[in-house]
Design a protein that fits this description.
Order of helices and strands: HHEEHHEHEEH
Number of helices: 6
Low-confidence stretches: 1-10
Distance between the termini: 50 Å
Radius of gyration: 15 Å
Structural class: alpha/beta
Mean pLDDT: 93
Shape: globular
Strand order of the largest sheet: 2-1-3-4-5
Number of strands: 5
Helix content: 40-55%
Length: 164
């Protein structure tokens, strides 16, 4: 299992990570334009093929589970015809919450790449270590801080504008 995860980690370069995070940032911008919290996600298979993209859609869908990460997991599972997303990588602009992190464990993703940390609700490195602590029955590789400044700025700008 660890060898397979290591191979997945080595397949992606920093350029790939940046390119995929830029796609996720585009999804976050689209979410913000709809009045949603600007979080975007993309999911790629083990060969780097794009399977799913989404931005938050909690407000528009009246769905408390309408987080970008949940949406890409659902889309990819539908495309692959399997809720197990073995060998996939999720890119998301904000460190996932506990709900999304647990769903990633359940889906058996291989890797998570996030932009900005979430000190209040982040469940990967900030508040908890879901998916990496060995407590649950699956682990995934984590890379954080990819386009961190851009991801964080998008969230700060959104909330600053909302408070005005």
């Amino acid at each position: 299992m660890q060898d397979r995860l290591r191979r997945v980690e080595l397949m992606f370069t920093k350029t790939d990570d940046r390119r995929m995070m830029e796609l996720a940032l585009g999804q976050a911008r689209a979410a913000a334009a709809r009045g949603e919290v600007p979080v975007g996600a993309v999911l790629v298979d083990g060969d780097g093929r794009l399977l799913a993209t989404a931005g938050n859609n909690c407000v528009g869908a009246s769905d408390p589970a309408g987080h970008a990460e949940m949406l890409v997991l659902r889309q990819a599972a539908g495309i692959l015809g399997n809720y197990r997303l073995v060998g996939t990588t999720v890119y998301v602009t904000l460190e996932p919450c506990a709900m999304c992190a647990a769903a990633m464990v359940h889906a058996r993703i291989a890797r998570l790449v996030f932009g900005a940390a979430d000190p209040k609700a982040g469940a990967i490195i900030s508040r908890y270590r879901i998916g990496t602590d060995g407590v649950l029955n699956h682990r995934f590789v984590v890379s954080g801080g990819i386009l961190e400044v851009e991801c964080g700025r998008q969230l700060k700008d959104f909330f600053r504008n909302r408070r005005r």
